[in-house]
Specification:
Blueprint lengths: L5 E2 L4 H11 L3 E6 L2 E7 H9 L8 H5 L3 H17 L5 H5 L4 H13 L26 E4 L5 E4 L5 E5 L2 E4 L17 E6 L5 E4 L5 E4 L3 E6 L8 E12 L4 E2 L10 E2 L2 E5 L2 E5 L3 E6 L6 E7 L2 E5 L2 H7 L6 E2 L3 E2 L8 E4 L3 E6 L2 E6 L2 H4 L6 E8 H12 L2 E4 L8 E7 L4 H11 L3 E5 L2 E5 L1
Parallel strand pairs: 1-2, 6-9, 12-15, 26-29
Antiparallel strand pairs: 2-3, 4-5, 4-8, 6-7, 8-11, 9-10, 10-12, 11-12, 12-17, 13-14, 15-16, 16-19, 17-18, 18-23, 19-22, 20-21, 23-24, 25-27, 28-29
Length: about 425
Amino acid sequence: MDQIRLYTRQLVAEALSIMQNGKVDSLPVYDNDDFIGRITYDELQVFLKYNRNAGNIEVHKLNFELGTALSTVKRIRKEEEQRPVRSTIVRQFVIGLSSIAAVVLVLLSLNRLFFTPAHSIPAFENNAAIPSSKKILLTLANGDNIPLNAKEAGVAVVGNELKYIDGAKVAGPEDLVTKSQQMVLNIPRGGTYQMILPDGSKVWLNAASSLKFPSTFAGVTQRRVELNGEAYFEISKITRPSLQGERRSAVRVPFIVVSNGQEIEVLGTHFNVNAYSNEKSVQTTLLEGSVRVRQASTQNVLAASLDPSTLDFMGGVNAELDLGKSVLLKPNEQATLVNNEISVKHVDAEESIAWKNGEFTFRNTSLESIMRMVTRWYDVEVVYQNKEIGEELIGGTIIRSYKIAQVLQMLEMTANVKFKIEGRRITVLE
């Protein structure tokens, strides 16, 4: 029986299906190769029904990871041990195998787990956060702000014009795009936007992010942008004519992303950068191609002024200039910068760009980190009754189209917390 294993990163729905197909009542749960406990079919059903005072959200909880479910089950076990006279309550929650299996199989057959529709979950009465009224702004070098239409998918620099992706011209002065002008695209909390740069490179910006970029890359030896926040990049490969003294061939024009203590050098590739200033680390995740991530330093300023054809990123300029600590990423690898140290691990890169598709996927993530995402997506302020509450680890998926009250209800069911909403202020309670 125990040759079948469950792992913390599996969804509750998947675990129930495995148990039913294997005709077993309980299975061991592993975190990588470490055994962390056993869980039964009945206990997973109890998990789905646990603390239902906010309404029926079984489908929400099917989309949470087994590690989260197990921690809740252990809490239930402890509660039942402390209240032995009420131990029979656990049994009354048990659902028949056929009914819950039907739900699971339908979800899995759709190859995607959706949450319960909005109308089926009671909202926090009179406490829904007010939608953000902040605008997406393009800031010009002279300080002028050009408001952009948030209903558009994004904006593009096309020649000497700034246009929306559907082709409509952005309202503004005639000289909105001028040679070598630096611009900053500012995305407020609650928003996302796409930017097509002058070279055709595409950038998707997450909420509470900004991107500084030039209005043209003509004649440059490297394309350089600055990111604050999170963005997904699809970089176009471009070359320039060789300079005097170089061999007669086209020379690549590298693309440099500067973000919160690091620099990323790429040619043509797809990658995601999470560099919010209020996060403890900077994460660079590669989906396609290759990138070199290096720690930013004063030496990088010198390197930026040099012709990239003279750079050897393994050893500096002519193997003499040290560009600081660096790593070369392969697809499905993630570099994490913490306290000037860079580490690399293998990941599911698609999870890093789930936000681009309106989802937030978290693996063994602290509640505090999840709530920082909530502040960005819903433009709210989060405070804690006790800071230690934020240390609880959770895994699962949240859909961005949900109202904030629904998200908080779901988190209440899986983390041992309560929330209080007052306008834009959310208090995390014990």
